[in-house]
Structures are given as structure tokens and as C-alpha cells.
Amino acid sequence: MAKSNKNIYIDYAAGFSANSSSVHREGVEAKKRLENARKEVANSLNCRSEEIIFTSGGTESNNLAIQGVVLAKVFPSLLGERKAFTKPHIITTNIEHPSVLETFRMLEKRKFAEISIVSVEKNGIIDPKKIKKEIKKNTVLISVMYANNEIGIIQPIKEIAKEIRYCRKTRQKTFLHGLAGVGDPENRGPGKKIFDEFSFPLFHIDAVQAVNYLDLNVEKLGVDLLSISGSKIEGSGRVGVLYKRKTVPLSPMFGGGDQENGLRPGTENLPAIIKFSSALKSVQKNKEKENKRLTILRDYFVNKLSRMPLDTGMIINGDLENRLPNNINITFPKIPSELLVIELSAKGIMASAKSACESSRKEGSYVIDAIRPEQNTEIGGLRFSLGVKTTKSDIDYTIKALSQILQKLKKWYN
């Protein structure tokens, strides 16, 4: 019988703790295992091994992508002095994960970047034409979440990538048309550095929520940077990955060692990385079968919700078709979602009202506010996430429990 990812992790952590940067025999063996894991992850993403950077999780991967690109423009070298420059412009949407939105706002506050936050439509999907409209001469990065962590909406990544490529080609043609006596931009010479500026804007996607269900082929997606994390994969390690296309300029956020091509200092968490690479390979291999199973369960859940006898005015948040197979997010317009989370928890059902990264804030979900601005901001949305262990009987129990809770809270919506 094959070992589980958990057993692989325990066996490795207990019997092998060498530093992969060491030159002794065990260090060399650790380095070999690290690079094998890197190769496995690269195969899952259809990229080169050297384009994979291991981090601590999705939040760090997102920060490294966003800050790394901006800092590479503001500070051409790690120790270089800041000189007169055109402030970089970066674009994102108003329903991104806090690790993206707050990083954008931080860079704006520190005057490192000019930002544009584009609003999604009421179904939670961003219009690629809106992204295109916001692109300026100084735009260096566009960051869009592949699938939203609260409402599960899948964004049109390929269409956005197409608009970005069009922008790059237009810039290049304009530049080449006006080029005179500068040198061949495709070869070495004075024109090369100038021409490189037209590889911008770069395209980053946060694919943390998409990792179990969607295509991660970076070539097909047309992205320059992609973040994933083991936190969303059953049986995976707590580790993150940033795919960085080889030619993308990136500055490190931290000083320290030269691990991960000098972009992420610190000894790699090798046991977790090995566990993650194995789990990623497994979910990508089985995703089609699991997607079908979860889609059937999700649609069954939605059908049951719509047939509940109580007239609560329930709303399903986000597009019904372009969403992850494991996500159901609903709103009862007069009942605070936090209250429903507490009531469901008492019955052994773990739901959520907003991103875990926002749990300390008293306000409701900014994602729900973005698609339902007319709604009371304290109401929010109620998210149910299906997983590999979810069964039809689990859904039946949840519907029964929710009906009982709504009956108990009848005064809220009568």
C-alpha cells in the first residue's frame, strides 16, 4: 500500500533534517530532494524548475510577486539608491484577497506605487475591458485572483492575459516605429534595455483557491507570476509557491541568504515542500473526477436551499456557472451571517462569513459589499466549502440544521 502524504512527512521529518544548503553528504542529499520536489511542482504548472520559488504560504507569495515587481522598478538594485523615476502603476480588483489588496494600499501609502482598484460586476466577474482601460504608460503589474476565496467566482484569466499581450505589442510597435539609430532591440546594444521596458505590464494571478480545481498551466493561462499554497490542498504541507517567468525582474523583500535564487532567504522547509509537491501532483491528476463529484453535490445543495419552505429571501452570491465546484455562498438579507456561523458551529457545521484574514475586523465581508452595495454591510455572506470527505448525507444534515436555525431566528426576517 502506498504511503499517505502525512506518513511521507512524518518519516522524512523524523529521519532526515539536514540543511539543503550544506555541502556535506546529507546536505547534498537534501538539496537533491528539494530540487526533485521543485521539478514536480514545475511539471504541474508546465514551467521550468528554476521558475519555481518556495515560500511560507500564499500571502508571502502574493507579497513577493507584487512588492518584488514594484521594488525592482523603484530600486534597480538591492543596495542601489533611489533616483528620480516615474512612479510605477499597478492594477487589481476590489474583491482580491487581503494579501493583495492591503499590499497595494501599503505601496500606495509609502509612495512606491500608484494604484487602480477596478470594480467587478454584480456577478463577481471582472470585465477584461475595464482592466484594459486602466492600463497606463507606467503600468508595471496587474494582479487578479484566479478564483475568489469567498464567493468562488472564477475570473476570465485568459481573456485578461490577451488584453495585456495586446497592450505590450502595441507599445513595442510604437517604440520600433520611432526607433532611429538606437540599435537592434532584439539583440544586445543600447536598444535592448529600452525595449525590455515594453515587456510590461506583467500579469500576476493568485491561484491559491484554484489549485485543486482549475488548470494551472501557466503557458495556457498566459501569466507571468502565479501564487499557490498548500493550505488549500488536503494532505499538503504548509508551504507556498510563486511561479516567476524567467525574464520577470523581481527584487527580494527580505535580506539574508541566497536561497531560492536569492529571492527568498531562509532555510527551506523541506519536509513540507516534499509533502506539498506530492499532494499537488495528486490533486492535479484527480481534479477532473473530483470536480464532477463536487459539482453534483454543490448543485444538489443549491437545489435543496432553494426549496426550503421558509420565505427568507435567500440570495446566492456570485455567478452560478463560473464558480468553483466546492463553493456555495448565500445571503439571508436580514440575518447577520456571523450569527448564522455561530449557530451552525453549535451543530457541528463549520461555515464562514468572510475571509479568515479579515476575521478580526468588525465590518462584514468587503467582497459581498462589492457585489451587493445596496445591502446592509453587517449582513455579509455565508460560505459553505465542500471537500474530499463531503457526502450527500452531510448536505442533508446541513439543510436540516439550517432550517431549524432559520425557524429559531424567524423574528429577524418577519
What does this structure look like?
By secondary structure, the protein is of the alpha/beta class. The chain has 2 domains: about 5-280, Type I PLP-dependent aspartate aminotransferase-like (Major domain) (Aspartate Aminotransferase, domain 2), CATH 3.40.640; about 285-410, Aspartate Aminotransferase, domain 1 (Alpha-Beta Complex), CATH 3.90.1150.10. It has 13 helices and 10 strands. It has helices at about 5-15, 25-45, 60-75, 100-110, 130-135, 155-180, 190-195, 220, 270-305, 335-345, 365-370, 390-410, 410-414; strands at about 50-55, 90-95, 115-120, 140-145, 200-205, 225-230, 240-245, 315, 325-330, 380-385. The chain has a 7-stranded mixed β-sheet, sandwiched between helices. Strands 8-9-10 form a 3-stranded antiparallel β-sheet. The N and C termini lie far apart (about 55 Å).
What is the structure about, briefly put?
Helices cover 42% and strands 11% of the residues. With 414 residues, it is α/β, with parallel strands linked by helices.
Please give the order of strands in the largest beta sheet.
1-7-6-5-4-2-3
Number of domains: 2
Looking at the structure, the CATH topology of the largest domain is Aspartate Aminotransferase, domain 2
Topology, number of strands: 10
Question: N- to C-terminal separation?
Answer: 57 Å
Largest sheet: 7 strands, mixed
Strand content: 5-15%
Number of helices: 13
CATH architecture of the largest domain: 3-Layer(aba) Sandwich
Helix content: 40-55%
Please write the string of helix (H) and strand (E) elements.
HHEHEHEHEHHEHEEHEEHHEHH
CATH superfamily of the largest domain: Type I PLP-dependent aspartate aminotransferase-like (Major domain)
